[in-house]
Every structure is written in C-alpha cells, then in structure tokens.
Amino acid sequence: MTAPFPTHKQEEWRYADLEALQPVWEQFAEPIVLTVGAGEKLEEVWLPVAEDVQLRRVRLSLGDGARARIFALNNAPVYGRIELEVSLAEGAEFEMFAANIGSGLSTNEIVTNVKHLGPGGRSRQTIRSVLNGKAVGSYLGKVEVARGAQQTDAEQSVKAMLLDRGATANCKPELEIFADDVKCAHGATVGELDAMQLFYAESRGLDPMSARALLLEGFVMDLWDSAKDGDAIRTAARDALRKVV
Amino acid sequence: MLKITNLHATVADKPILNGVSLHVPAGEVHAIMGPNGSGKSTLAYVLAGRPSYTVSEGGVSFDGRDLLAMDPHERAAAGMFLGFQYPVEIPGISYLQFLRESLNSQRRARGEAELSGGDFIKLAREQAKLLEMDAEMLKRPVNVGFSGGEKKRAEMVQMGILNPRFAVLDETDSGLDIDALRIVGEGINRIMRAPDKGVLLITHYERLLEHVSPDKVHVLQAGRITRSGDIELARELENTGYAEAAA
Description:
The structure holds two protein chains of two kinds. By secondary structure, chain A is an alpha/beta fold. Chain A is 18% helix and 44% strand. In chain A, the strands form two sheets. Chain A has a six-stranded parallel sheet, with no helix packed on it. Chain A is globular, with a radius of gyration of 18 Å. Helix content of chain B is 39%, strand content 29%. The two termini of chain B are 31 Å apart.
C-alpha cells in the first residue's frame, strides 16, 4: 500500500515542493531499507540523477559496533530530497557528509532522523548548502537519544552560502534526549562569499568567476575528503558548483 | 615603469591619499616609510585594485598602460603583485591548487601556455626551498593555521612562483624574526632585482632595507610624499622618528 501523500503541516515536509513531488510520489513512497550487521561497515555515495524531481528515502539500521558513512550530493533542477532515518545500536557509528547545491527556483533538502537506541553510539552530520537565484536549500536534522543510550556523542555542523539575495537556506536541528550522560552539539551558519578572499584570489590573477568558483570549492569539497571512492561525487559537485557561480 | 601622478583616493568617503606622486623606473627598488594611518596600505590596495577603494583624482601608469582602468586580475596578468600585510586565509583550497590556478590564469591571459601539473609542482618546490619553507606546507589550505611569519614567507613563495614584473610589498617584514627577515630580504633581491622589474617596499622599519638596499626612500605622511632620499633617510628616521622628519 502506498504511504499517504505528505502535507506541509508535517514538520519534516514543511519546506518541500509538494507540487513537484505529487506526480512521482507512488514510485518513491516506500523507503529503501539498508541493514549493517554487528561490527560491519558500509560506505555509500549518493549522486544526483538526471531527473527534475529526485527523492531518496532510506532507512538505515546499524547493529552493535556497526559503522556507516554516507556521502550525498543533492542537486535536483526542480526538487531534490534526501531523507534518511538511521538507528544506531550499541557502539554504532554513523557519519553523513552531504551538500545541497541549488540554482534557479529549485528546492533541495536533506532530512535526517538519527536515533541513538543503544549506548556509546557516535553520529556526525556535516551539511553544506550553496544556493543562487531563488533556490531553497534545507536541512532538517533530528537526533533522538533513547533512554539508556548513555555516552551518545552526536554532532551536526550545517553551513550555507547564499550567492544571491533571493536564495533561502533553512536549517533546523532538533534534539530529543532521554538519557542524561550524552554529548549532542550542533552549529549552523549562513553566509556570503567573503569580499577579502575574493580580492585576494583576484589579485593573484583569477578572474572574478574563477575566484568565486574556487572559494565555493573550498567551502564544499572537503566534505568528500574521507571518501574511499569519492571521484564521482567530487566531479559531480565540481560541475554543480560551476553552474551556480 | 610605475608612475603615480597626483593620486587622491578615498575609503568609505574618507580622503586617505591626498596627491601622491611617485616614479619607480624599471630596475629600481623604492621604499615607502611613514607613520600609522599615513596611507601606506591604502596606496598598496589602490595599486592592486581593491574594491571600495575609490580614486577621486590623479592616475597611475604601469608600463605606459592605465593601471587604474584594469581589474585586479588583469593587473596581476600585466605583472603587478601585492604582498599583503595580512595574507588572507582560504579554507578548503590547498596552496598548490590556489597558485597553480592563479599562475595558469595569468598565463592564459598573456597568451602563454599553461604549466603542467608536474612542472608546476617542481616550480613550487623550488621556490619554497629557496625561501626555506617546508614544501609540505603548500599542501595545506591557503594560510590556514600558518603563523604570522609563515604567512609572510608564503607571500614571498607566491611571488617567486608568479614571478611578477612589479611588486608592492605591504609590510612584508612585520611579524618576522631576524632570520626570517634575512631570508625574505634575500628572496626579494633574488626574485625582483632585475633590469626590467621594480619594487615598492612599504615598511615601518629600516632593518629590511639593510638587506634589500633600496634605490630611493620616500616618506608618506597624511597621504602625501613629504620627503625623498636614499637609505640614509631611512637610517635618520630610525633615530629621529617621523615627527622630526616632517619638520
């Protein structure tokens, strides 16, 4: 049975482009389920595809001591949504490095729900958005720490770069903590390209467009530093950045 | 080579340069000294084309071309280099990438062939070595985590790699210890002392000038050149200070 179509009243769909989503909803409604067994490792790279509307719904379950690392680029021309629910058993480790790169009138969003179910789990989420025109880029990140999930260590780092005045970045970290010995941190910034960095690069011979492209590269590309197989996402991100400069 | 004529400039509507005239012929190194707030850094930024630094009167010709009509990257391609007083940090971009793209961008603009990756690395290593900087540092993001002295030395490595025709060096000596000062001084001589090159060296202290031996020394006060002379003038300033020099 198809899941009911979402509404903007649901917090996790608040910024979604539901109109764009409607015609393709049925093919995406059910999430993909990924399971990483105790002590095992998973590394995934999620690249954009050649569709106007792109939705990726994943439910990831990490067993005791399991480790998962997700690298994702969200760069849909109309509406892109990466939705990830993760559950971590004892000592599990989850890392996500993701970027929204959006231009024109596009909406790209990353929505995560990280559930620390067992003690000693660690989660790291690093999200960067680069937006031009009237593009919208959002990150909604919920971290739940269950009763008994002591020594949980969770971190969210979210930064957005707005290249035009009409662009919008939404960032909404949310913590639900039912254990008393945990470390949960989040930081978020929204900014523009730094005028002094641009001048410095131009004074060395880079034309204004190349200088902007280079600074944006510096803002985004270190997301993929720890990827074992990061060539494809590096290339895709570089191409996407050249288009938003 | 560089001819500044009656240059007036404002920053945020405040007049800072009030008629600077200065001629640096090819093959010469000129030093500019002056108290804080006299307009030294403004002059450097105006020559490099920093946005929001507005020229209200006067002009600058560089090899007969109107320097002020060019954008910052065009000035760089024409051979102008600014050594920043406060080198800027660029996270996420390695020095090697930054300089390779900069150099090749300049070369393209001049109609020269780009340097291959291998040739560039060789050049970068060579220049780092000459300035006694660990070449490994060039793999790090631009100026991030560099000490004040390391940043200044890295500016000189950049100058060595980009090999400009004219360098404006804005207090490149500040923040350097005595050994670093000698190395930087030797670097300036090695890279820039040539019959077809020129240097404008902005400094507070006479010490660097003992290494570089400028052909002329000028004093900038309240946005104007108030005195010009040879290195003896710098030595005199070191003893008397600017207040008496103006009298």
